[in-house]
Amino acid sequence: RIIIGAAAVAVAVLVAGGVCAHRAYESHQASVARDACESAVADQAKAVKAYKTLLGSDATVAALKTDAKSVKDAKTLDVLSKAMKASTPKTVSCKADSRPGVQDATKGVTANASWYKAHTKSLNGLVNAVETSKLDKTVDDANALYKETDGRVADDKTREILLKAVKARDTDAIAKAVKEVNESKAAKEK
Fold first, then answer.
1. Buried (b) or exposed (e) across 50-82, using 16+ Cβ within 10 A?
2. Per-residue pLDDT averaged across 89-94, rounded?
3. Could you say which of 20, 56, 85, 116 has the lowest number of CB atoms within 10 Å?
């Protein structure tokens, strides 16, 4: 009887120890999962901040205010407008009762971060496309002015400056040169 009682106590101690070890292991695994989720949340927060910064940037605001007559390809404005209407993903929380629940939340947070990163990159490209299209239109218009004013200006140097600005694709230089060519053209017409 004493041997059976001692064996039963030993088994009970082993079972209790096993249960405690299993609980400690599960607690550790849940803690690791929560840490991974919180790390994913921090990554998502950076991605959201970058996205919102781009949305409010001067370049984006200017691109959105661009008139279709100011760009060479008006489709760039349509694509940008559609991209701005994209629905942002729903917020996912790391709060869950189980390790699998936290792991699922981590997947959701990671997916959201990926969405923000992809849309930030895409939106940035679309804003740049609008800016490029505006510059293309400016260059085309300036080049047309250069061609149509051949022999029709008081000072041909103004046309040379215009051509140089067109080749450099320098918006400010083009604007200044266009003004000077137009003034020279008006002077010759008088």
1. bbeebeeeeebeebeebeeeebebbebbebbee
2. 90
3. 85
